[in-house]
Amino acid sequence: MSESKDIKGSKYGKDQDQQPQQQRTKKNLWLIRHAESTHNAKPPHEPDDKYFNCGLSENGKQQASKIQGPVDLLLCSPLRRTLETYAHSSLRVKKFETVEELREWTTYGPSCLYDLENPAVLEDAHQFRARVRMVVDIIRQKPQTNIAILSHGATLAELTRQLNIPCTTGWYNAEVKHFPDVIFP
Question: pTM higher than 0.90, yes or no?
Answer without folding.
Answer: no
